[in-house]
Amino acid sequence: MMQSIPPTSRECFICASSEQEVIEDFLGAALFVMDDFYSIDIKKVLCKQCGLIYASHYLGVEHLERLYVSMNAGPENLTYRFSAAPDYNQFFVDSLTKMFPNRRRRVLDVGCGRCQTLDRFKSLGWETYGVDISPLSQDLAKKKGHSVWCGAFQDIDFGDIQFEAILFEESLEHMLNPNFVLERVNELLTDSGLIGVSLPESYTCLKSKNLYDILRDDHCNHFTPVTIRKLLTSKGLYPLDMYLDVDAPLPDMKVIASKKPVFSLLVEGFEEKRDFSREAMQLYWKMKQGLRDVFSKETSGYKRIVVYCAGSYATIVLPVIWGDYSKRVTAFIDNDLRKYGKSLYNKPVLPSRDLKDLNPDCIVIASEQFENEICGNISEDMQSVKIIKAHHFLKDVLSQMVI
């Protein structure tokens, strides 16, 4: 039986209200943390007071840090920005370079990953600093000439360094205590300093039929333009400019804020005074139920189901869409050596060489990134077996759904 990770309970970090409406209770979900599978208790809710969508029950700091290190155990997996558009940092590069043209400039990138953004700023003459929870990022940064601390942002001692710009590109949605984080930002910014934040915009994600923001196990905060503005101003940070990148695979909201109240621009494409949180929640419910109905029909009648890939799709996404699917699964297949011999939902995790011996009547490929590669690796003499490419299948169903 899998060990359980006890959850951390959180009230709304914007208004401190405990009045909430449940959006998703990830019952039956699991995570692979460092070296084993653990059952988890994650619950995502809508704050009835201020409209924030967030995880009211989530992993504690210790397990969260272990999860991120585990997710980035190899250089090929250091992908904190895998969902961003190719020019994801252009908005910040252009804006900050214009605002700080001819004086000493220091930029700190929190969650700097492979240091692409720091590379850009360094090429423009900035002093470049970063923070990342993965030791791999620190090693990479040294080779590129950046100063990077390894660990959680709130634990870093920066000495007497202050920064003209602090960036959170796809990282604030992962942080348990945004209040503390932004208070620390205020201490570290110069008087004329700016904070840049980019993160998924939950309503637009769902309007574009992308459920992944809500279904991401490592996203504990979900923002709309109204709620990110409320959070920033509550900590004495005032939005100068906001931009919505609807072309990013995960629609991306970018915000620049200062320590001084200034005239604020409206969010491009948004009616600023309207909050879309409840509409986002209703869209999510409608799409989830539609997917469940179709997926249930697609898999009915199969008794020996093998799930190929025991990653986040198998442990987080499928339990939500499929319900208690594990009862019909005979085994899991995965190419990660760390998972061999482990048990997931009391079913073995086996190497791909054992697939044929399992004699499945249905194979569910539960991977987004490696879906086609896995499908190509299934031997020709198993082509008569029902194969469901889960990510491709879900996208097709959603594309035909009227919302």
Q: pLDDT average, as an integer?
A: 86
Question: How far is it from the N-terminal to the C-terminal residue, by CA?
Answer: 40 Å
Q: Detail the poorly predicted runs.
A: 74-86, 265-271
Q: How would you classify the helix and strand content by structural class?
A: alpha/beta
Work out the oligomeric state of the chains in this entry. single chain
Fraction of residues in H or I helices: 25-40%
Gyration radius, rounded: 22 Å
Counting DSSP E segments of at least 2 residues, the number of strands comes to 21
Number of helices: 12
- Order of adjacent strands in the largest pleated sheet: 10-9-8-11-12-15-14
Main sheet characteristics? 7 strands, mixed
**How much strand content do the residues show?**
25-35%
Shape: globular
Question: What does it look like?
Answer:
The protein is α/β, with parallel strands linked by helices and 403 residues long. Helix content is 30%, strand content 26%. The protein is built from twelve helices and 21 strands. The strands form four sheets. The chain has a seven-stranded mixed beta sheet with strand order 10-9-8-11-12-15-14, sandwiched between helices. Strand 4 (30-33) and strand 5 (36-39) form a beta hairpin. The longest helix has 23 residues, at 277-299. It is globular and about 65 Å long. The model is unreliable at 74-86 and 265-271 (pLDDT under 50).
